[in-house]
Design brief:
Length: 206
């Protein structure tokens, strides 16, 4: 997280919204010598504060968690992009990178195998809903032997989130006119990850 508090938000509504909408992130768990990282699709339930996901059974994180529950951080990258100093319209500026990043931290556990199918259904229902009006894919479309074979390879997991920290670096340290000028140039350039959303956020920043 950025050390400048002007860019920081803790447990804000839009941190929760970004976590819920992203659906994909990097899970980081302490290892013996280096951190273990897994890139995971997930579903965040705002009511329960739980992140549901699954890991390949051979993943080092799954092996660590199978021995004992642990702490982890889920890292979400929101829109981000390069900001040229030429875009501000004033002198003596330097290049920078504006971005949104969310860190969700909590306790993680591997669940019993009988919880795997409900979690898989929860994940697929969540992501398939974005594809409507296409009929939602269901696990019932799989033959039983294929389903069993696939499910043997993965383990169900859940993170109970107890802290959500966010960096929303959107040029809040700049004068309004300067920040808005950069947002317009970013929008016109089309550069970066989702420049339109990042430009929107820069225009809304205070």
């Amino acid at each position: 997280m950025h050390p400048n508090q002007i860019f920081r938000e803790t447990d804000s509504e839009r941190n929760h919204t970004m976590l819920a909408s992203a659906g994909f992130g990097a899970l980081v768990v302490n290892g013996d010598d280096v951190p273990h990282v897994a890139h995971i699709p997930y579903h965040y339930d705002r009511v329960t504060g739980q992140v549901a996901f699954h890991l390949v059974r051979s993943n080092p994180i799954a092996r660590v968690l199978a021995k004992s529950d642990g702490r982890a951080t889920l890292i979400i990258n929101g829109p981000h992009g390069y900001i040229s100093p030429d875009w501000y319209g004033v002198d003596d500026q330097v290049p920078t990178w504006n971005y949104v990043a969310i860190h969700a931290t909590g306790s993680v556990a591997v669940l019993p195998d009988d919880q795997l199918e409900p979690i898989l259904n929860r994940l697929s229902d969540h992501f398939e809903a974005d594809l409507l009006p296409k009929p939602i894919w269901k696990m019932s479309k799989l033959t039983e032997d294929v389903k069993i074979r696939m499910m043997r390879q993965i383990v169900p997991c859940v993170m109970q989130v107890d802290m959500i920290d966010g960096t929303w670096k959107l040029g809040q340290n700049k004068a309004d006119a300067v920040r808005l000028a950069a947002a317009k140039q970013l929008r016109d350039s089309g550069d970066g990850s989702d420049p339109q959303q990042l430009a929107d956020l820069m225009e809304q920043a205070t």
